Structure formats: C-alpha cells, structure tokens
Automatic annotation (TrEMBL):
It catalyses: ATP + H2O = ADP + phosphate + H(+). One of its GO terms (molecular function) is RNA helicase activity. The gene is Ddx51. Keywords: ATP-binding, Helicase, Hydrolase, Nucleotide-binding, RNA-binding. The Q motif is unique to and characteristic of the DEAD box family of RNA helicases and controls ATP binding and hydrolysis. This is ATP-dependent RNA helicase.
Amino acid sequence: MALFHVARYSDPKAGSAEAEAEGEAGARGRARALLERLQCRARERQQLRQPETAVQSAEPAGRRRRRRRPRRRRRPSGSASQSPDARRAKRRKADGEDANPGSSETAPGTRAERAEAQPTPGERPPEEGAEPQARGPVLGGFTRRKAPKVQPFLPLWLAEPRGVRRNVTEDLTPIEAIPEVHPDLQKQLRAHGISSYFPVQAAVIPALLESAAGGFLIGKGGYPPSDLCVSAPTGSGKTLAFVIPVVQALLHRVVCHIRALVMLPTKELAQQVSKVFNIYTDATPLRVALVTGQKSLAKEQESLVQKTADGYRCLADIVVATPGRLVDHIDQTPGFSLQQLRFLVIDEADRMIDSMHQSWLPRVVAAAFHSGDPVDPCALLQRRQPQAVTARSTCYPQMPLQKLLFSATLTQNPEKLQQLGLYQPRLFSTGLAHKGLKDKDVEVDEDLGEKYTFPVGLTHHYVPCSLSSKPLAVLRLVLGMNFSRTLCFTNSRDSSHRLFLLVQAFGGVNVAEFSSRYGPGQRKKILKQFEQGKIQLLISTDATARGIDVQGVELVVNFDAPQYLRTYVHRVGRTARAGKTGQAFTLLLKVQEKKFLRMLAEAGVPELVRCEISSELLQPLVPRYEEALSQLERTVKEEQKLKAV
Ligand SMILES: Nc1ncnc2c1ncn2[C@@H]1O[C@H](COP(=O)(O)OP(=O)(O)OP(=O)(O)O)[C@@H](O)[C@H]1O
C-alpha cells in the first residue's frame, strides 16, 4: 500500500519523457527508504504495545505465538522414526519453550512479561497469591460469576388476568343470574339441559355483552371495545362462552352481512362449532355458513352469496371457517365481503397463531378494513383500524372489529400475541402461575411461563413399558377397564395404522383408526360412530387431540408419549369434560420417563400415579397377541404390494 502510494505521488514530474528513466530509479530508491521508515515505526509501536499485553495472562500469549507459527511440512522420512514425545519436545523448543516446565528458564511469558513481573526498586513486591495489577482494561475475567436469572416481563394485562375458577362443578351461576342474556337464548340453553353457567361462561358472557351494548358501533366514550383472551381448561365450556354473546349481539340485525367470523384449525372442529351455532340460531333469522372445504368451492359460494340484479346479496351472518378455505373465498368468491365484520373469534388460538404463516389474519383484517381503498370522509359509517380517539374520530359512527381468543393453552408469549394486533386486550384465565419462568432446562414448548390447568375430575397415570410390550399394555388397559369409549393417541399416522391392524387382528375390541389416511367424509363417519358408542377404541393421531367433544370418553391412552406439554393437555382433555371424571394413561419407555415426569411436574399436574402392569397380567394375552403379530406382518406385506402396484 505504502509502495503504491510512494510510486504514485513521489515524483511530480512523472510523465515527462526525459525524466522518466532517471525518475523511475529515484522513485524506487525513495520508496524503499520510505518503506524502511514505515517498518521501523511499526516495530517501535509494537514494542510500545508489548508491555501492556504482557500483564495479561501468560497462557494466552503462548497460545497466540503458537497460532502464528507457520505450518511445517511433514518430512517424508526420518521424522517418521521419531517418537511423538520427541517430536512434541522439538516443537516446544522451536517455540521457545522448554520441555521441562519446572525449570526457571521455562517461566511462561516473554522477556517483557518477565521484566514486568520483577518489582522495580522502591516498589513493594507483590504479595504471594495476589493477582498482578492490570494497567489497562483486561478482557475476560478470572472469576466465574453466576449470571442473574432472567425474569419474564409481561404486559400488565397478561401478568394480572381476571381470575376464573376452573372447577365446573362448584359455585355454578344459575341462568337467571345473568339477566342480560336474551330470554329466547335462556330458553334454548334450558332446552339443551343447561341450567347454570360454568365459571368461564359466567365471567365472559356478561363482559362480551357489555362490550357489544353499543350494537355494531363503537362503545362507550368513542372507544372501541377491548379484545378478549380466554384461557380455561379443556371441557370447561369455552364454546358457549362466545356462541351466546355473539348470537345475542347479532339478534336484531336488519340486513344480512357477515358480522361474525369464527376461525378453527380443523374441519372437524369447525363442524362441531357450527353445530352449536346452529342450535342457538335455529329460532332466529340468523344464518350460519360452514367454510372448510368439505364441500366444493361452488357449493360453499352458494351458501355465502347470491347474485342479484344490482350486485350480490350476503346469505350468512356467521361464518365458521378454517384458514385455507377462508382465504380461497376472499380471493375467489365474488361479492364475499367482510366489511361489516364485528366479531373475529379465534378458537384454539395458540394453534391458530402457529398457522399464521398462511397469513390468513392480515387477509381478514385487510378485507374488513378495506385496506388500500381511501376512506371516504363523507361516508356515514366509517371503518378504520383502532387508532387514537380524537374529537374528529368520534364525529362519525364507527364499527369496531373485536377479536376474541379462546384456548386451553393460550400462549403467554407477548411476541406471539403481538402478531394478532390486539386492541387493549383483557385476559380471563384459570391459571394463576403467570409469574416467573420455569427454572429447569425442561423443554416445555418455547412459550414463556407456561403452566396450564387441567380439569378437576381428571386423574393422570403413567405406565413404564418396553417398546415391545406397549401394544399389550394398551390391550390390557382397554380390556381390563372395559369402558365404552377409549381414545388412544399415537405420534404418527403409520403408528396409528399398525396399532389399529394389530388390535383388529387380536380381536375382542371394536376398534377404528382416525388419521389423515382417511378423507373428510370418512373421518366424519368414524367420529359419529365413536359418538354413538359403536366404536369402543378409537386409535388416532393428534387430529382428534384438540377441541373434539365426544360425550362419554372415560379413558385416554397415550400410546406414544406426547412431545410437548400443550399436546398432552389437549389429548388428555378429551376426557373429564364438563365436570365429569376421566382417566389418562401414558405409556413411557425408560428413556422417556425422566423428561416426561419433569415436564408434567413443571406443568403443575397435581398427582401423577405410577401404574405398573405386571407380566402376570400380560401373560394370558401373549399367545393371541403373537398370532396377531404374524397376522399384522402379512397384512403389512399385502398393503405394501398393493401400494407398489
Ligand atoms: N353450562 C354448561 N352446563 C353443562 N354442560 C355444559 C355447559 N357449558 C358447556 N357444556 C358442555 O361441556 C362440554 C365441553 O364444552 P366445550 O366443548 O365448549 O369445552 P371447551 O372448553 O371448548 O373444551 P376444549 O378446550 O377441549 O375445546 C360440551 O359438551 C358442552 O355441551
């Protein structure tokens, strides 16, 4: 660089023909002189810097030297005959180290370092064991200090939720105690055997009705209503907690528009929720549409919009949908409008946040607020995203979009919740453990401070098993307990299928499987048969783990241990619903036991009962089981052949 600099600028006459030869020789000489001067200065600077580095530990200096040493080429002969020790000693010698670390010659550090360590006359020698005084800041340290524990910082609404009792059998609120609920809806509730509200319903229904008191327009003082988040155990009646107030808020609508959109992760769940809406809208002019892809797009379009002479007419007030299909309608259904949307209900909210990569929420919000179009300042009814309330903003009637989130395992992670763009949210929760993180390194999802509540009537068991005895253990549990409905979960559809074939070959149990191997129609049929009690054992993937409400499931068996706490909560929540009792058994391999038990302890599972199934109990099943195993082998081979064809 210096050479380049010198050659370029040293001779102002460069370019003149006569001076060229002479100038070139002169320039080279000057350049060399300048280079030498630069090198000399660099050496001086290095020497000045050396005493400073010398006070640092001698060991890193040694390491630095070793790193700088150029790589030697391995000698083809001679060196091979040397022992590794001799080679190491030689290398150390070449590095300036002595093979004998005890000798005075071998004191680590350079000469400058050693000189630094010597006390100067008049200076007190350093006390024995005292650390050398560093002149400048020394990077790193000699003492390991424990890093302070990081505490989660939750926004106030998350840290201090409104508490809801989790026990649905105590302190129930009679239907008459909430007179705000429309008499017709009260009548419907009674007609369906509901005489009192569960705690989550008693807390959420009045809050929602109050926020909808302004009809479809902005609430008190010009403020949009708060968004609501509800976290309550499985089977605690969250569905009715949103169905009743949504139906009531829309009861007096004049023109049919989509005013409530309920989002669910699976077709089966959407179907279940739309059934509940149908019950409570039956005697009203309100219409419910199911948009899940179970029917063709054209058929669904027919249930949503009708072409008229002057445009399109909306045919649904409440749409229950899965994300993918909803986006299809936003894109492809002419006349499909969400511009009058008042309620956006997100059930199984934590799962729906996970499916946000489908970007269904921004699409819904954009469709509701007609983003992109400029707001007509003269329009009677204005629709803007929540913003600061000003005198001007209160001049026009505005229609808010209120988001309602429900889950048994609602995330406490503010970053995840932020994706939903909640407005002044309020949390209703049965879990009180929102403060403090788990302190062990258990892999309990990635969410913060997760502690979930379980139904009171649920008892948790685990069965230590070997891999080969797991199917026998399931058979023993099912045959021994003889419940009319048992749900058994596996971690994959292949695992479900094999277990199904094995149990079928064993005989004596009415068994079926439920997984993505079957189409929506077949799955619907299987669930119906299970509900009717025609299937005693349903072997399923996690497709039925969430939200599915089948009355009379008394036993849940985790054939494969769930990987995540959330999965466990939802799986075992298929039993002990609505205040009933139920049992959950998890089969655990030896290697899984420790981690699983820690995970549940973290989750605050009240009591986990160890349940050994002795070999004497399994022995009588073994001969039939072995026959079933060979039958399974034959069936699998046939299936593989068929697949290949
Ligand atoms: N007040 C009530 N009285 C009696 N039964 C009720 C009441 N509310 C709801 N149920 C019944 O409780 C069962 C569970 O309700 P729901 O499916 O709403 O639970 P959930 O909290 O949504 O559960 P999950 O988190 O598993 O989805 C349903 O069969 C429902 O009919």
